[in-house]
Amino acid sequence: MIKEFMSQLSSSKGRSLQISNWTWILIALGAHTGWGANPVLGRYLQTVSHLPTLSIIGFGNLIDLFLITLVILPHLDIRMFRQPILWLFTIIVFFRGTTNLLSTRFTLAVYVQLINLLTPFVVALISTIFLREKLPRYTWRAILLALFGALLMTSADMNGGGLKIALGKSDWIGIGLACISTLFLAFYMITARYTIKYAVSGETVLFSQIATLALANTALSFLTQENWAQLACSIGWYLGFMSSWSCLVQTWDKFSPSGI
């Protein structure tokens, strides 16, 4: 989709723009690296740099919103914002983004990411239960193996005494938030697919996602009186990491061509 979008932009300037598959592979590697490192960075910003959660999400996405507005806004069709599926999508995006970052404030990033990686199985189960779609073969076996692997990763001591899980109250809060976030991520994936059914363009979906995270979290941050002055202490490297990785992940997720 982004190939067609970029071609439209370039054709208006009278030249052809082509993106090779290797370029998409590099973008994918960068995006998924950002996706994997996101919980680590999120926990660092909250527990080491002591930055407030809502302002992190709001500030990072405000930068993204400014950048994509320059490119996408002229191509948006305002009529698409009348679609109820798009508003449902934005609600899911808000709760997914907020609970995901908040979970890393309470527990280790590796626990959060392990739970996030169970999302494909959650999507399969929701699609089967509510959408009556056929469950792929061996899904239950894969779910059990994934759960067992996650259990091993969260085990603090397996020597002699068997499997022991050493988690404090804070860890359980973080894991609970991560589970809620994963559930919202599953609904996010399913809803994103249905936006195609209702002919909502990828540009509109991307703009709605970033605008929701930026504006809603910024507003809540000010309402809860978070201290934005703390952001000034780490603004340089924070801009580079949060903004660029967020853009890469979201752009790849919305616009990557099939087969890469």
Brief digest:
The chain is an all-alpha fold. It has helices spanning 2-11, 21-47, 53-72, 84-106, 109-116, 119-130, 139-153, 169-197, 202-223, 235-255, and strands spanning 155-157, 164-165.
User: Helix fraction?
Assistant: over 70%
Order of helices and strands: HHHHHHHEEHHH
Tally the helices.
10
The strand order across the widest sheet is: 1-2
End-to-end distance, in Å? 13 Å
What composes the largest sheet? 2 strands, antiparallel
Uncertain regions: pLDDT < 50 for 5+ in a row? 1-17
Query: Oligomerization state of this entry?
Result: single chain
Our Rg estimate from Cα atoms comes to 20 Å
* Mean pLDDT value: 76
- The percentage of residues in β strands lies in under 5%
In total, the number of strands is 2
| Mass-distribution shape | globular
Structural class computed from helices and strand pairing: mainly alpha
